[in-house]
From TrEMBL:
Claim: Signal is one of the keywords in the record: yes
The protein, known as: DmsE family decaheme c-type cytochrome
Record-linked InterPro entries: Decahaem_cyt-c_DmsE, Multihaem_cyt_sf, Multiheme_Cytochr_ET, Paired_CXXCH_1
Gene3D superfamilies: 1.10.287.3080, Cytochrome C3, Flavocytochrome C3, Chain A
């Protein structure tokens, strides 16, 4: 079987090279044709789309999710030693440690019992592609590349652990579940999955992803959007975004993943950049400076004054002004007894330091000033 297909591929490549030489001067193009000739020949037409299996195979992404792909393009980064992701057409069948002697039986047998799952999964890029492009393991691998070999399960479907399953009720340990997905997706954003807080707390990829059903427009998520996925566990954080002051996440213009990498990172808590401030500068670039006069707490950490997930004060502040400032500035040239009833706007001696915009009425450039006469952030 292998031999026959190898011969076919060889024959095809010879034909393609000849065609390439006829159409254009030999050289780069002919070489390219030879390299891409590994694509399987056209087989039958799939009725629904009018595309042949060969068409689909040609359209498959030339994928390399390993970190090296991105790194090699960037002259400033050294390559790392993680292997590139496996392409669809070389999908291996993982070993199920709970049924180590099981053999692959092919998607047809799975579908005989799981017709409904098969219909749902037919939307997914994975299943379409495994069916179309499997040069090594054959289209029968469409289910077993993720669920492991099925012979034991097919004989006794209710035997616990007989198949790699992706739910918390299943006997398959989360690490084995994630291991299957990581077999192809270990690089890139998932470099720090192992050891991450989500991994340590027993999450599986399928807590956030459902590759079987199309629940989200992109990302094969387990809910309709990224924020919905996170909110399924972090309800408290999602609720904070409903406060009076918030960044436009409930409005759908931001996602938790603008700041966090749920797959793990080297910065606590799962931040995408090296520091909190770097995260903020990715969008609020003007706060980076440089400033002639810096306000020390701004340089140190934006969280000294802001609660990123939402606040009932103005502009995400952690405390109202003037109390926010007075947490640090107690004994300044300004007297420290600002909060008397007399000083309020309705009192007998309204104090300009607590009416209007409070301290900000005068110290308006609170994040830093570039004005030569602005050391007190007045201008
Ligand atoms: C003879 C019919 C039959 C065949 C063939 C079969 N299954 Fe199943 N499968 C079942 C039944 C019945 C269940 C439900 C078992 C239960 O509820 O304990 C099941 C459950 C499952 C589950 C969920 C297991 C869990 O613990 O949550 C997965 C995943 C699964 N099958 C995948 C497959 C795959 C992949 C194949 C092909 C390799 C396959 N099945 C072949 C009948 C079958
Ligand atoms: C990309 C990997 C992948 C492929 C390919 C795949 N599955 Fe799944 N399958 C999953 C994951 C992940 C889940 C768990 C989804 C969830 O959270 O409900 C699952 C769940 C299931 C279940 C259990 C459903 C339930 O409600 O408990 C069955 C049965 C199943 N798959 C059968 C199949 C069949 C049949 C195929 C081939 C047509 C297939 N799978 C292909 C990853 C895959
Ligand atoms: C045999 C290799 C292989 C396995 C196993 C595999 N994937 Fe994939 N997956 C791919 C490839 C290849 C792509 C497409 C990459 C691209 O679009 O560039 C992909 C795409 C994805 C995407 C992105 C889809 C999108 O629309 O953006 C997600 C999410 C994903 N896989 C999750 C999983 C999960 C979860 C599992 C385990 C249940 C899994 N994969 C198992 C190879 C695999
Ligand atoms: C806590 C939730 C969560 C967990 C757990 C999780 N993911 Fe994701 N994943 C996401 C979200 C959200 C996105 C979309 C990110 C975006 O668009 O910026 C994503 C995107 C992806 C993508 C496509 C984009 C990319 O980075 O290439 C792949 C592939 C993927 N995840 C694979 C996995 C695998 C494999 C696992 C298990 C080891 C896993 N994910 C575990 C939430 C999660
Ligand atoms: C299945 C439940 C679940 C889902 C879904 C989930 N998380 Fe988590 N997350 C956890 C658990 C459990 C912890 C650990 C909490 C602890 O230790 O206090 C955690 C911790 C975190 C932390 C804190 C990390 C640290 O170092 O303290 C961040 C940030 C986080 N998750 C972000 C996200 C984002 C973003 C998403 C959506 C893409 C998400 N989570 C989806 C369960 C989940
Ligand atoms: C604008 C960037 C940003 C966005 C958007 C964001 N976070 Fe955070 N998140 C942070 C920062 C910064 C911290 C660190 C807070 C600290 O140390 O007090 C944090 C901390 C966390 C923590 C751990 C500490 C805690 O407060 O419990 C969790 C869990 C978390 N975020 C989840 C989420 C979820 C879920 C979403 C989406 C609903 C989200 N974050 C959206 C920046 C963000
Ligand atoms: C992905 C982009 C993005 C990131 C990252 C980001 N922000 Fe924002 N932020 C926004 C957007 C968009 C707005 C709304 C701007 C508007 O309404 O004009 C906003 C508004 C704000 C506001 C004003 C809120 C109000 O009620 O007026 C503050 C304060 C703020 N962000 C602080 C932060 C801090 C601190 C960080 C870092 C932890 C951060 N942002 C990271 C996009 C981002
Ligand atoms: C010393 C307290 C303090 C620190 C630290 C701080 N801010 Fe602010 N921030 C404020 C105050 C007060 C306001 C309200 C200003 C106003 O209403 O004019 C504000 C407003 C904002 C706004 C909305 C208005 C504007 O100027 O665009 C953004 C965005 C913002 N801060 C981002 C940041 C970022 C990013 C950092 C970290 C680099 C940071 N802040 C650090 C006190 C602080
Ligand atoms: C987390 C502590 C902290 C908070 C909160 C804080 N500051 Fe500061 N502020 C500092 C530090 C530290 C300096 C630097 C003092 C120095 O260089 O002697 C400073 C410097 C200043 C200066 C310049 C002082 C000088 O001697 O040049 C002004 C004005 C000022 N802050 C106003 C404010 C106002 C107004 C607020 C409230 C919006 C505020 N600060 C909030 C810590 C803070
Ligand atoms: C009416 C305008 C005004 C208001 C309102 C105001 N300040 Fe000032 N502040 C000033 C001026 C002017 C100076 C410079 C005094 C000097 O250099 O002698 C100053 C200086 C400071 C300094 C530096 C003190 C030092 O030792 O050099 C700090 C800190 C400060 N203000 C904090 C605050 C805080 C906190 C508030 C709100 C409670 C506030 N200011 C409200 C005008 C104001």
């Amino acid at each position: 079987m292998r031999l026959v297909s190898l011969c076919c591929a060889a024959l095809l490549s010879v034909m393609l090279i000849v065609a390439g030489m006829l159409l254009s001067p030999p050289g780069a193009q002919a070489q390219q044709a030879a390299a891409s000739s590994a694509a399987p020949p056209d087989v039958q037409h799939s009725a629904s789309s009018g595309l042949s299996q060969g068409d689909i195979a040609r359209m498959l992404p030339a994928t390399d999710m390993g970190a090296n792909a991105a790194r090699q393009k960037d002259p400033h980064l050294a390559p790392v030693s993680d292997s590139p992701a496996t392409p669809f057409d070389a999908a291996p069948i993982p070993v199920n440690p709970l049924a180590p002697n099981a053999d692959a039986i092919g998607a047809k047998t799975c579908v005989a019992c799981h017709a409904q799952e098969n219909i749902q999964a037919s939307h997914s890029l994975h299943v379409i592609s495994f069916r179309a492009g499997a040069a090594n393991s054959g289209p029968q691998a469409a289910c077993e590349t993720c669920h492991g070999p099925g012979s034991v399960h097919a004989k006794d479907p209710t035997a616990p652990g007989s198949i790699i399953a992706y739910t918390h009720e299943s006997k398959t340990p989360p690490r084995v579940q994630a291991g299957v997905c990581l077999g192809c997706h270990a690089g890139g954003a998932r470099q720090h999955w192992v050891g991450s807080v989500h991994e340590n707390r027993g999450l599986s990829c399928s807590d956030c992803h459902n590759p079987m059903t199309r629940l989200s427009p992109e990302g094969l998520l387990a809910a309709s959007s990224i924020n919905e996925v996170c909110a399924s566990c972090h309800q408290d954080i999602r609720a904070k975004f409903n406060r009076r002051s918030h960044m436009p996440l409930p409005e759908g213009q931001m996602a938790c993943t603008d700041c966090h990498n749920p797959h793990g990172s080297i910065t606590k808590p799962l931040l995408k950049t090296d520091t909190v401030n770097e995260t903020c500068y990715t969008c609020h670039a003007e706060k980076r400076g440089p400033f002639l006069f810096e306000h020390a707490p701004v340089r140190e950490n934006c969280l000294n004054c802001h609660d990123v997930h939402g606040s009932n004060q103005q502009t995400l502040l952690v405390a109202p002004i003037p109390m926010l400032c007075q947490q640090c500035h107690t004994m300044t040239l300004h007297p420290n007894d600002l909060q008397t009833p007399a000083g309020l706007g309705t009192g007998p001696h309204p104090d300009e330091r607590i009416i209007g915009r409070g301290c900000l009425t005068c110290h308006s450039n609170i994040h830093g000033s570039n004005n030569p006469s602005g050391p007190k952030f007045h201008e």
